[in-house]
């Protein structure tokens, strides 16, 4: 991939570490065992003594934010997260419709896994510029959750696309309806993502393919979505 990017691979979900002159920033913070996998991944890359200065969140699902509060506290790191998922960080989300199923799972999982609520230091809105890793822009990609947001690095033509889709060889798909707040909205978000000038995308639920390959899978998924 890139020498200043580490993908922390875990059995259920991946998350990412970006490195620039100021230190490390996590892009999401993983799920069960995430802290262990993070330590291993940093050691493997020789980054174990680097300062984690921030955590940037794509959305408020438990498998992305379980470790945010503890890691932020430990490292003294800032947290920036999409404003429209605020109820989820504060642990006050009440889901409706299909997403009630996910809501129930989260309601059970949060106390069980000792989720610690947090208030971000910075609220992220669509189009916000984030001054790290050569510049990232927040791209609101709602549907999966109301606040679901990707982060676009224009200079590298790369989009960290969160849970916009899951990318596995021979099995790429949109997130299942029971996990989405508004499945119909995801289509629009897929088209919005693909309207960017892209050389690759980086999803969180994915195999170890290169960003270019993930992008090809997203493009063929989008072609199958179009009603014609
Ligand atoms: Zn999710």
From TrEMBL:
Entry coiled-coil feature ranges: none
Domain Metallo-beta-lactamase, first and last residues per copy: 12-205
Top-rank taxon: Bacteria
Pfam families in the record: Lactamase_B
Protein name in the entry: MBL fold metallo-hydrolase
Organism, scientific name: Luteolibacter soli
SUPFAM superfamilies cross-referenced by the UniProt entry: Metallo-hydrolase/oxidoreductase
InterPro entries to which the protein is assigned, alphabetical: Metallo-B-lactamas, NDM-1-like, RibonucZ/Hydroxyglut_hydro
């Amino acid at each position: 991939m890139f020498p200043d990017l580490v993908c922390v691979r875990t059995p259920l979900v991946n998350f990412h570490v970006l490195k620039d002159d100021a230190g490390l920033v996590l892009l999401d913070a993983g799920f069960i065992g995430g802290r262990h996998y993070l330590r291993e991944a940093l050691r493997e890359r020789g980054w174990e003594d680097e300062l984690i200065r921030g955590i940037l969140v794509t959305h408020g699902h438990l498998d992305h934010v379980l470790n945010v509060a503890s890691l932020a506290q430990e490292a003294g790191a800032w947290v920036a997260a999409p404003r429209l998922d605020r109820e989820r960080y504060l642990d006050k989300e009440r889901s409706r419709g299909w997403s009630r199923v996910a809501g129930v799972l989260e309601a059970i999982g949060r106390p069980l896994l000792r989720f610690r609520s947090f208030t971000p230091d910075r609220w992220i809105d669509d189009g916000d510029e984030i001054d790290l890793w050569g510049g990232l822009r927040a791209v609101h990609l709602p549907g999966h959750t109301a606040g679901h947001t990707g982060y676009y690095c224009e200079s590298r033509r790369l989009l960290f696309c969160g849970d916009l889709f899951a990318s596995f060889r021979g099995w790429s798909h949109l997130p299942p309806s029971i996990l989405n707040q508004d499945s119909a909205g995801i289509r629009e978000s897929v088209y919005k993502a693909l309207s960017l000038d892209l050389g690759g995308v980086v999803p969180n639920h994915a195999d170890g393919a290169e960003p270019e390959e993930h992008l090809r899978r997203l493009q063929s998924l989008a072609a199958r979505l179009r009603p014609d």
